[in-house]
Amino acid sequence: MTEHGTDPSIVARPRTFCPDFLVVGVVKGGTTALYNLLDRHPDIHLPPIKETNFFSRADMRPQDFSREYALDVRLDPAKFIRDGMKEVVHIAHVNDEGQYAALFTKARPGQVLGEVCPSYAICPSAAAAIHAARPDVQVFFMLRDPVQRAWSQYIMNLREGKTMERDFLKEVEQDARQAKQGWGVNHQYLQLGMYAGQVERFLKLFGKDRVHVLLHERFKRNPADTMRQVFATIGVGPVHDLDVSGKFNEAAVPRHALLNRLLVRSGAISAVKAMVPRELRGGFKKMLYSKQDMPVLPKEQAERLWKTYEPDVDRLSGLMNIDLHQWWGPKQSKA
Questions:
Q1: Is residue 297 within 8 Å of 306, Cβ to Cβ?
Q2: DSSP 8-state symbol, 16
Q3: Can you spell out the DSSP letters for 286-324?
Q4: What counts of helices (H) and strands (E) characterise the chain?
Q5: How many CB atoms lie within 10 A of CB 4?
Q6: Which stretches within 160-267 are classed as H helix?
Q7: What is the pLDDT of residue 9?
């Protein structure tokens, strides 16, 4: 102990590793597309696990995870690292500081390091954990009309066999009444779209100079313009020939809903994905999913849900000095 009663081993303990920038949210806001475009920049390095959930680990309750989510995150990070991190995987739970840092070891000298992980927005502990590790990190939110965000998540859950409910609003309301709530526990359709509190947590710790809001709708219309904005903020040069034509995480529905659900809950789909090379998975998806006869968000349901979100949108507009009522038509939309 020092003369002031402080354990010197605690003083000397290095701060938890944290990259130079983080995209913290939101679910179904376009973070997968953003990850892929960031990863194409030669001066940026992202971890090969797109969503590590490292800084939100204090809010995770594995004992309460839904079966489907537990299957989604069953990757063993230690084995993945030992095996050479040979391909990008979508999600895992990385709880060990050394393993988290190891995900960045393939970065070349001079590259800017980043991570994309939507649980950091919704999980209450994440902002403080990130700030403790690196208070000067640049933070990005990719926000989307919260009604359209919830609808897109619902379509994704239909595709992935995580729900069989064909009435969108009934699905949202049933999920909101679940006795157990949280990341990986229930779908959080409503909570994930309540952005004001999520953004405010980061603003209080990092300030407006380090918290940046991107809008999904602008990104979708002109991805190159959004990427120029992001590149300038994190201090890398523009890429004049950046390919922004790809489509990522496209909406679809299962060809055979009950069979799809059985395959998901049994873990069969996850097992096949793990065995099939990434370049061959497109054919596998075509066998299971279809883009024909996609459901359309009923106008009356969209209107009801918007009324739930409108006070939060008012508050967020004030926080960011952006009129976010531009989100609302009201409109019908595909996912």
A1: no
A2: P
A3: HHHEE-TT-----HHHHHHHHHHHHHHHHHHHHHHT--G
A4: 17, 9
A5: 5
A6: 168-176, 189-192, 195-206, 216-221, 223-234, 257-266
A7: 38
CA nearest 236: which of 100, 69, 42, 99? 42
Domain tally for the chain?
Answer: 1
| pLDDT tens-digit series, residues 13-63 | 456 899 999 999 999 999 999 999 999 999 999 999 999 999 999 999 999
Q: Are 130 and 15 in contact (CB under 8 A)?
A: no
* Tokens 């739970």 belong to residue: 93
The per-residue pLDDT for 161 is 86
pLDDT at 11: 38
Whole-number Cα distances in Å, 144 to 172, 214, 294: 17, 9, 20
Distance CA 91, CA 71 (A): 11
Q: What is the CATH number of the domain that holds 142?
A: 3.40.50.300
Instruction: Output the six-digit token pair for 17.
Output: 């590793």
Q: Please report where in the chains the tokens 């609003």 appear, as a residue.
A: 169
What's the pLDDT at 258? 55
DSSP notation for 243-296:
------S---EESSHHHHHHHHHHTHHHHHHHHS-GGGHHHHHHHHEE-TT---
DSSP state of 180: S
289 in any annotated domain: no
In which residue ranges of the chain is pLDDT below 50?
1-13, 284, 330-335
Query: Would you state the structure tokens that stand for residue 158, as one six-digit string?
Result: 């239909």
Residue 8 belongs to some domain of the structure: no
Task: Work out the angle at residue 264's Cα, subtended by the Cα atoms of residues 124 and 156, and round it to the nearest 5 degrees.
Answer: 55
Return the residue matching tokens 């003083």.
Answer: 11
Report the chain's terminal Cα–Cα distance, integer Å: 59
| Closest by Cα among 140, 152, 122 to 60 | 122
Asked if the structure places residue 196 within a domain, the reply is yes
In 3-state terms the chain splits into helix, strand, coil percentages (rounded to 5) of 50, 10, 40
